[in-house]
Amino acid sequence: MLEKEIDMDKEIALLLEEYGQESVKVLKREVKIKNLTASNKMLNSINYKVQGSKVMLSFSAVLNIVDRGRRKGKKRVSSRDILDWMRDKNIRPRANRKKGLGSSNFAIESHRNMKSSAFMISKAISDKGTIKRFAHKGAKIIKTVRTGSKALNELKKGLSEVLGKKVKQSFRQLKTLR
Length: 178
Hints:
The chain is mainly alpha-helical.
């Protein structure tokens, strides 16, 4: 009986490729579910590549900040970055609040008002941290593709099956050598 030789490297490469694709899909889904996108820049930055026996996930630094959050007391975020975010999210500054009275009116959308608002947002992030709805601790979405994730468990199961086949094949070949 002629057996087909198991090409372990190809099968492992396929499993790693599937894990990379699934990890990217899961991360993008989590970002969308938790409504963390201002523009699609961060979403489009999520990619992977297989390097040898490793799957390398890559994404913008913004995803790291969204994932981990930014604790209070840290160096201020650049007002320019905040300004870009405000434009992406179409956030407009509010009218001046005098004597503690809130205002639901929008200020005139001038560069000065936008810059001033960006500075105040940067200051608030420095004073309080980011993402209030996650208790200023971040969204914790990267863990969805790490230890214990469904995609990682599928990878482990697949690797186990490939190695099991290869071991059985090696034993069969040893028996025929006798």
